[in-house]
Amino acid sequence: MEATDYIRQRLDEQQQWYSLKSVINKKNYYRFKISTIILAVLIPLISGMEELTAITLPANLITGALGALVAILSSVSGLLKFKDKWIHYRTASEQLKSEKYLWSSKTAPYNRSDAYHVLVSRVEAIIHAEHGDWGGYIGLDKGAEDPGA
């Protein structure tokens, strides 16, 4: 495989994939966090309104439902680890981008005769490190089998 093919088919595609997944996870993280904050703020507000009106049953139901939604959103956000994935994917994307810039500018370590082999080794190490960390995201111990597989 030629260097230009490798860069286009592997490095660029992986960098773009990590970048896209980073954006998606960042948006999901903020959506869940902002929703949780808004719902949590509404609970005391609605409870305080109960004092101003004679209607208590709907306020109790509403605050209970809001509390349940806050718990659900917090739990799902923690389970899906949007923030962790956002940061990790962004890190991998930026590392791959940096390798491409170093390669393109023939800057060390790409200023030697075996530069292509160095590029492939470094890019694959970044990708492998990200894949190797995947078990930690989903809560698997290294060496343990995935019970859902």
Topology (SSEs and partners):
Elements: H1 3-52, H2 57-80, H3 82-104, H4 115-132, H5 134-137
Helix pairs in contact: 1-2, 1-3, 1-4, 3-4
Give a short summary of the structure:
By secondary structure, this protein is mainly α. It has helices at residues 3-52, 57-80, 82-104, 115-132, 134-137. The chain has one domain (3-137).
Overview of this protein structure:
The protein is an all-alpha fold and 149 residues long. The protein has one domain. It contains 5 helices and no strands. The chain has helices at 3-52, 57-80, 82-104, 115-132, 134-137.
User: What portion of the residues fall into strands of 2 or more residues?
Assistant: under 5%
Oligomerization state: single chain
Number of strands: 0
Tally of discrete structural domains? 1
Main sheet characteristics: none
Can you write the helix and strand succession as a string? HHHHH
Number of helices: 5
If you average the pLDDT, what whole number results? 88
From the spread of the alpha carbons, the general shape counts as rod-shaped
Low-confidence stretches: none
Question: In terms of structural class, how would the helical and strand content be classed?
Answer: mainly alpha
Q: Compute the separation of the termini in Å.
A: 34 Å
Radius of gyration: 24 Å
Residue share in helix: over 70%
